[in-house]
Write a structure and sequence with these properties.
heterodimer; A: alpha/beta; six-stranded mixed β-sheet; B: mainly alpha; globular
């Protein structure tokens, strides 16, 4: 499902948070949104599933068009297609068992209610947890597990677009790795359109296809991740640090005039260097 | 947006921000006494003028204050309906509404322009005289925490509502019976969050050696400037005039 922002602006009262956003988020790709705190990342993603409506311009999400002050009658149909995992989703649990928490969305959207239990188990399995969690109290789980339950509660209704708002905050290294595995699987096997907003460019670099860089509510860069991230100096001007792997390659090129290329994984980069030295 | 403006401190420069917190708290007490002893609509309108002048001096947009008052519209409407049913005099109804709006606006002036820690400090100093018979410090701490928690909880409610909406339970578009379900769903995480936050705040106080049993030397220098005397003077004069007006009429 492709998402189009047509000259979108958004204001909270007199404060303009987003200004003239004109971008396309491609279908079946992973898109990262980067920017300093207060650059408008969260506002941008909340415009996609109709939690906020633009002050001017329009947002096209598949067949849905979100315009200023225009009430959408079938808003739940849009939210069924666009799942959103919030920043600290674990703070928003309200059921007493994991199975009820995950099944909540399914009930609201009236989707395949007969297969509810089966789907809860599937969603739990996708995030790497087993059936023993079903009857546990979500509030008693660890931070990483809570985050996984929050993701499962979105995956259960199988949305075409999945949005993650700062998904790695508060997660340890292992949890981050398993999150990256899950997102890659969602893209590769299920062709989902995935949008991730984050400060962590190293994490985004290992995962995304395209990047959008926001600064003071405006898009300053947008496109292929290598094209965007290699402009290290310009990124720093907007308060965004380039990923370490890109930065290393840039430094080697600058100081030793050796072009080793850009890589997503550290292991691949080491192999390149080894090949060169050999 | 409104959730973000209720009882929030706005750290900007203004004459009202610079006032001594003790003077501000004493003034609000004098103001409350004045508005409650006066039964004259015109005197109460004069108080409204004073409130508007203070709002102007506070350098915070009028819009923010009136949005907060607008939030009370159903409460005011309910009062009007009940008064009409009970056949209360129209003058009386207008008077109560003006009093109520004055009171709301003045309390917002206090919270918008004064840090909650300054309010506690002022309350502790003012009620310090009752220290032997009342746990003043504990009461003041409770008031501060309550004031601090209101915007936090409102922001959190907003977040939970958005989270519910993205899972198909939108409060704005829900029917009446569904709205009740949504409210029920919000209460549980709000409670857990409140306890969690309360724990965190208690720990934060403890690690900084805060103790209810021991007296601490205040780090503030409580300076009273010329404008403080002027501000307090206006409130005293208003109170005296109101008493005179009540006695004469």
């Amino acid at each position: 499902m492709e998402i189009k922002f047509n000259h979108v602006s958004f204001s909270y009262g007199s404060k303009e948070v987003l200004s003239d956003i004109d971008i396309v988020i491609p279908k079946s790709k992973i898109t990262g949104i980067v920017g300093k705190s207060g650059s408008g990342k969260t506002t941008l993603i909340q415009l996609i599933n109709g939690l906020l409506l633009p002050t001017s311009g329009s947002v096209e999400v598949g067949s849905f068009v979100l315009e200023p002050n225009k009430k959408i009658n079938n808003i739940n149909a849009l939210r069924f297609d666009v799942g959103m995992v919030f920043q600290f989703p674990e703070e928003q649990f309200f059921h007493t068992t994991v199975s009820k928490e995950i099944g909540f969305g399914l009930e609201q959207f009236n989707y395949k209610r007969d297969k509810k239990d089966e789907r809860i188990r599937e969603a739990l399995k996708m995030v790497g947890l087993n059936d023993s969690y079903l009857e546990r109290d979500p509030f008693s789980l660890s931070n990483g597990e809570k985050r996984k339950i929050a993701i499962a509660s979105i995956l259960i209704f199988n949305p075409k677009v999945i949005i993650f708002d700062e998904p790695t905050i508060g997660l340890d290294f292992e949890s981050k790795k398993s999150f990256i595995r899950l997102v890659k699987l969602l893209k590769k096997r299920y062709n989902k359109t995935i949008i991730i907003s984050s400060h962590d460019t190293d994490f985004l670099h290992s995962l995304v296809d395209n990047v959008i860089v926001l600064n003071k509510g405006k898009v300053v860069f947008s496109g292929d991740k290598y094209e965007v991230f290699k402009q290290e100096k310009r990124l720093r001007k907007y308060g965004v640090l380039a990923p370490k792997l890109i930065s290393f390659s840039n430094k080697v090129l600058e100081k030793k005039k050796i072009k080793i290329g850009y890589r997503d994984e550290i292991n691949d980069l080491i192999k390149d260097i080894y090949r060169y030295v050999k | 947006m409104l959730n973000n403006i209720v009882f929030k401190y706005f750290p900007i420069q203004s004459y009202i921000h610079m006032l001594n917190p003790i003077i501000k708290v004493i003034s609000i007490f004098l103001f409350i006494i004045s508005i409650f002893i006066s039964n004259n609509i015109f005197v109460n309108l004069l108080f409204t003028c004073l409130v508007l002048l203070i709002i102007f001096l506070s350098n915070i947009s009028f819009k923010l204050y009136f949005k907060a008052v607008w939030k009370m519209k159903y409460f005011i409407l309910m009062y009007i309906v009940i008064s009409f049913i009970c056949r209360v005099d129209i003058r009386e109804i207008i008077l109560i509404i003006i009093r109520f709006i004055n009171l709301i606006l003045y309390s917002f002036i206090l919270t918008y322009t004064t840090k909650s820690s300054d309010i506690t400090y002022a309350l502790e100093r003012i009620f310090g005289i009752f220290k032997c018979i009342l746990p003043v410090k504990a009461i003041c701490l409770i008031i501060t925490l309550a004031l601090q928690f209101i915007p936090i909880l409102l922001e959190q409610t907003n977040k939970i509502m958005k989270s519910l909406a993205s899972r198909g339970m939108d409060y704005k578009t829900a029917k009446l019976n569904e709205k009740w379900r949504i409210l029920k769903a919000i209460i549980i995480p709000m409670f857990t969050l409140s306890f969690k936050r309360a724990d965190e705040v208690a720990d934060a106080y403890e690690v900084r050696y805060y103790s209810l049993k021991e007296d601490i030397v205040p780090f503030r220098e409580s300076k009273v400037m010329l404008f403080d005397y002027f501000y307090l003077g206006i409130h005293i004069v208003l109170l005296i005039l109101t008493i005179v007006e009540v006695i004469i009429l």
